[in-house]
Amino acid sequence: MGKKTAMDIEVRFGDCDPAGIVFFPRYHRWMDAASLNFFMSCGVKPWHELELVNGIVGTPLLEIHTKFYKTATYGETIEVHTTVEAWMAKTFRHRHVVRRGDTVLCEGTELRAFCQRDAADPERIRAIPVPEDIQALCQ
Amino acid sequence: MGKKTAMDIEVRFGDCDPAGIVFFPRYHRWMDAASLNFFMSCGVKPWHELELVNGIVGTPLLEIHTKFYKTATYGETIEVHTTVEAWMAKTFRHRHVVRRGDTVLCEGTELRAFCQRDAADPERIRAIPVPEDIQALCQ
Amino acid sequence: MGKKTAMDIEVRFGDCDPAGIVFFPRYHRWMDAASLNFFMSCGVKPWHELELVNGIVGTPLLEIHTKFYKTATYGETIEVHTTVEAWMAKTFRHRHVVRRGDTVLCEGTELRAFCQRDAADPERIRAIPVPEDIQALCQ
Amino acid sequence: MGKKTAMDIEVRFGDCDPAGIVFFPRYHRWMDAASLNFFMSCGVKPWHELELVNGIVGTPLLEIHTKFYKTATYGETIEVHTTVEAWMAKTFRHRHVVRRGDTVLCEGTELRAFCQRDAADPERIRAIPVPEDIQALCQ
């Protein structure tokens, strides 16, 4: 089945725009945080510790697709529910459902890859096959 | 054909993450800015002026789909090229192509709707048909 | 003495810069959130509810002074400890101490004023005397 | 006398809060960008290039003090005027004045230090004396 995590978010004044609602890129910040929270909940170390062990600097995004249904504002608590829908050879697909109680606010699908810093050129990063030990922890 | 706009972005240190590359939600902030820049380039007033005239508070996002191909870092100048691909009854679809010179960094498609503050409940906003005068300015 | 509040912050990947440490404006976002959290903990409503009652749209900042002692990174939990140090006629002074366990990361002092939307020109906001009922709730 | 730089900022919808004005931490992001812009205008390379040469990862902030006088909103163009007020042994002091035309919006003073990644523990950074070649470029 795969693990599921839920992460609470307290929506803040500074998350909202002049229309008084959450500015949409904030949801993507929260999905990004929920992705790392998912891995850390599964026992994976944060990237800055992992980089010292195996050179992995993170899981950059290759593609994201989000649908927005309802708005939220500050003073509300919302939740990001996160799973890995599919593990592929070099990528994996996250699903994030953001809710306020029973109301679904938005849903996002992310395609990500584990990346290492390039040994020859430390300014570049490149995708690697999904590490088996990490995948095993998440199932 | 429809108008096309290009907006320059100077990538800043604070736009980048610990992997040293632009943190992806920043691209969505830039696409959002490019959307308003598109309308203002077509002669539409910024929302805070428009709200006083016709109650429009902005064009909240209904859906976004972005593919990321190449990374960027601070000290670089990139461009967001923006069009309206389609005008529907109550929505419109933006296309944003983000480039560094000839290199396409990412491409995003946004579905948006013009919204007004609800007269009965000023804390709520609701979608309205695309205003004809605004659509005319953009073609 | 005055109330004291503490707000937990989970530091996220996207809060950190290419040096791998929290990008300093994030601390000011957290202090801003800690300020509203302080008032809400004292029983004051969030501004979007208060605006409907008495026109208060928030407590814009007049001055901030922050000293940074230690860095933090993602995967860590930190706390913002908040008080009101002084209530003046039209302003008040917050003190925020940000800690990771016993380690003080930074300390900030904020001068703020309660503001209302200007009745004659709703695009402008202006400072008002500190509302007595709000001050009473916070002591 | 020392160099002076001016950096234009187009204020965006997403820079503004529910009161419709620029959310104050954005000014600090812009001051941070104006600091790097100052050094790059003086001929200093961006940190990610400098790190490969001399290990410098940036100029983390030690202290900031900002006074806010006037508000700004989206659709406006503002400027950040930046100087180095003083060079000390291990630190330097920036002054940023943010203006919209002749109107001063806010003024900030930053104390910063050049930092390198610690050789023994690459997760830590430490302050170094201000590099003479960099100081020479800025005068």
Question: What are the SSEs and their pairings?
Answer:
Four copies of one chain form a homotetramer.
Chain A: E1 4-10, H1 25-41, H2 47-54, E2 56-58, E3 61-68, E4 77-87, E5 92-100, E6 103-112, E7 115-117, E8 125-127, H3 132-137
Antiparallel strand pairs in A: 1-4, 2-7, 3-6, 4-5, 5-6, 7-8
Descriptors:
homotetramer; 139 residues; alpha+beta; five-stranded antiparallel sheet; three-stranded antiparallel sheet; 8 strands; globular
Which range best describes the helical content of chain A: under 10%, 10-25%, 25-40%, 40-55%, 55-70% or over 70%?
Answer: 10-25%
Order of helices and strands of chain A: EHHEEEEEEEH
How does the overall form of chain A come out from the CA principal axes?
globular
Beta content of chain A: 35-45%
Largest interface: A-B, 31 and 31 residues
Largest sheet, spatial ordering of strands of chain A: 1-4-5-6-3
Overall average pLDDT of chain A: 93
Radius of gyration of chain A: 16 Å
Number of helices of chain A: 3
Give the termini separation of chain A.
7 Å
Please state the structural category of chain A: alpha+beta
Q: What kind of oligomer do you see?
A: homotetramer
Uncertain residue ranges of chain A: none
Total E-strand runs of chain A:
8
Largest sheet of chain A: 5 strands, antiparallel
Task: Please provide a written account of the structure.
4 copies of one chain form a homotetramer. Chain A contains 3 helices and 8 strands; from the N terminus they run βααβββββββα. With 139 residues, the first copy, chain A, is of the alpha+beta class. In chain A, the strands form 2 sheets. A 5-stranded antiparallel β-sheet of chain A has the order 1-4-5-6-3, with helices on one face. In chain A, a hairpin with a 2-residue loop joins strand 5 and strand 6. The model of chain A has no long low-confidence stretch (mean pLDDT 93). Chains A and B meet through helix 1 and strand 3 of A and helix 1 and strand 3 of B.
